[in-house]
Amino acid sequence: MPAISLNVPTASGTIKLEASPSKPLFILGRNGTGKSALVQSFVSQLGGRATYLPGSRPSHFDQEFLQITPFSRKQLGNNLLTWDSMPDTRWKSFSGTSRNEKAVHDLTAAELQFKVDAANEIAREGKDSAAVVRLEAKISPLDRVNALLKQGGLPVSVAIETAELKAVRDGSTYSIAKMSDGERIALVLIAEVVAARTKLFLIDEPELHLHRAITLPLIGAIMRENSEGTFIVSTHELELVASYPQSSVAVVRSCSWMAANKCVWEVDTIADVSDLPENVRVDILGARSKILFVEGTVSSLDGRLYALLFPNASVRPLETCREVERAVAGLQGIKDLHHCKVFGMIDGDGMSQEQIATFESKNVYPLPVNCVESLYYADEVLAAIAKRQGENIGVDQQILLGEAKTNAIAALDPEETVSHLASRVAERQLRDSLLQHLPSRSDLVSGNSPGISLSLSSPYPAELARLKLLRAGKDLSGIVSRYPVRESRVLDALAKGLRFPGRADYERAVLRLLSLDDALCNALRSKLGALALMLA
């Protein structure tokens, strides 16, 4: 089968995507970017030449015993040509469960025809007929379906009894309508391909109702089973794409509806996914056109906050500052392959201006405050939360806020707490100073630095005096923005002063409020300087 070419309207003109038996086309993108609409537009372009499995397909049958007949099957085929060309098919199931019945009907008919053809051939040619070999080889449509179910790790098979397709499991035979959701979806997917009357397949989200441990081997097996077929698959399963390094990939970033049934897409194409290093595929495929790597874990505060502040970017948490720096540098080094804009955000952690400038030159932006907690407990956020909490519990917001700040300053009374916080900032300052005086690798190799001798004054006394001055002036904002207060009781005191059971409850309330309050989001964005403008 020759390669097919498909048109994709974009704001700057039409681009073409290609697919062939040797090079499947995967359509990737986040939810809401327009993947299903794009696949459905391909159905209209192909005019009935493809077998289409829409994402809106149901996973069940209406009756235990299928009602479809050869005549109604023919009528349904004609109707599907009309329905599948309608834009609303991407979200509405015009055919109900009849598409599932069609798949089972076609599989049953193909199996019976295979056996009838073999019987007729044996009757004509005798026991030496090639049909005997075909039957013994177990390559009938039903044999192929059962082999694929097994490859997908599904503990069920199918058989024909009294001219009906039945499920078989653990020695029991029962209606396929009583299979699990995942088993029925898998059966319909397999049947559509095995019994198809075309060699071109458009599949929207094959992973629906399937556990990913089943999706990957099953879809891979289905595609390999029909090696002469051309597959166009819209999916969220990035590992499925990675298992086909010779595939073409279209990453759908967004879509804009110009009219009721007219859409333009923002699409990046990756001609050969094998060109992407394995460790960056997940960061590229399915991401928005802007990617922000942040310092933290998946469950940390950072990712959740930045996802709210920067809805136009894909936020990827990494555990350390070094990992963020490497990820940004790695993707910038292959930017011609992925077309994404890549940024990093790390904790400020008391960095010097020189250190900040060095990071920013690499597209990695230190927070202008010590760490992400400085944003969660910023003055604007505390005031907004106090107002909401006061309304909920019937206490004046100024009283709540005053109590919270008094408690927080009191949490700094122990001298060992002040000493610890000051020493942490001083430690960072001293480390930065040492690094600035270290010779470069080239100096070491050339011998220009035969010895290293440094004499640095400790920044700790000045930092301790500074923190004590802030404490005496009850400058909570200055303390929270400069010092790692998460290593003290300050944040717990703030949360409890605002009548929350603990920090976790307070921080969840902040995320809820940010999801509703655009003005508060803008206030926090304004604290992040140039990066906020680039990620807008």
Sequence-ordered SSE layout with sheet pairings:
Elements: E1 4-10, E2 13-19, E3 25-28, H1 35-46, E4 51-53, H2 70-83, H3 98-125, H4 130-136, H5 141-151, E5 157-161, E6 164-169, E7 172-175, H6 181-194, E8 200-204, H7 212-225, E9 230-234, H8 238-242, E10 248-259, E11 262-270, H9 281-284, E12 290-295, H10 301-309, E13 313-318, H11 321-332, H12 335-338, E14 341-346, H13 353-360, E15 364-366, H14 373-376, H15 379-393, H16 397-410, H17 415-437, H18 441-446, H19 460-472, H20 476-482, H21 490-497, H22 503-516, H23 518-525, H24 530-534
Parallel strand pairs: 3-9, 3-10, 4-8, 8-9, 12-13, 12-14, 14-15
Antiparallel strand pairs: 1-2, 5-6, 6-7, 10-11
Helix pairs in contact: 3-4, 3-6, 5-6, 5-7, 10-22, 15-16, 16-21, 17-19
Brief account:
Helix content is 48%, strand content 16%.
Average pLDDT reading: 85
Structural class: alpha/beta
CATH class of the domain at 4-270: Alpha Beta
Overall morphology: elongated
Largest beta-sheet characterization: 6 strands, mixed
Low-confidence stretches: none
Strand content: 15-25%
Summed up, the helix count is 24
Quaternary structure annotation? single chain
CATH topology of the domain at 4-270: Rossmann fold
In the sheet with the most strands, the strands line up as 4-8-9-3-10-11
- How far do the termini sit from each other? 45 Å
Which percent range fits the helix content?
Answer: 40-55%
CATH level 4 superfamily of the domain at 4-270: P-loop containing nucleotide triphosphate hydrolases
